[in-house]
Amino acid sequence: xxxxxxxxxxxxxxxxxxxxxxxxxxxxxxxxxxxxxxxxxxxxxxxxxxxxxxxxxxxxxxxxxxxxxxxxxxxxxxxxxxxxxxxxxxxxxxxxxxxxxxxxxxxx
Length: 108
Prior knowledge:
Radius of gyration: 16 Å
Shape: globular
Strand content: under 5%
Number of domains: 1
Low-confidence stretches: none
Order of helices and strands: HHHEEH
Structural class: mainly alpha
Distance between the termini: 24 Å
Mean pLDDT: 88
């Protein structure tokens, strides 16, 4: 596992077309997790298309809030970078580099 302790590679261009597509792919993959199904169903309720009001976790609560007992660093082996998010699929705690550059993607 690569260590991105110097806050990522300064020569890496994060705004290139391929990197933007990669980030969108990761975000779409995260939102397709079962934890977000009630949130998507809520759209139907809020638009008046159904009377069922599902309870759901917000993105902030599902991916960016951590328990006191959880690690403050990335869970990947040999990585000691600070945590960035909790994967909505596997609930692993990841740093930005391991999430984006190691492409933490789940296949259904």
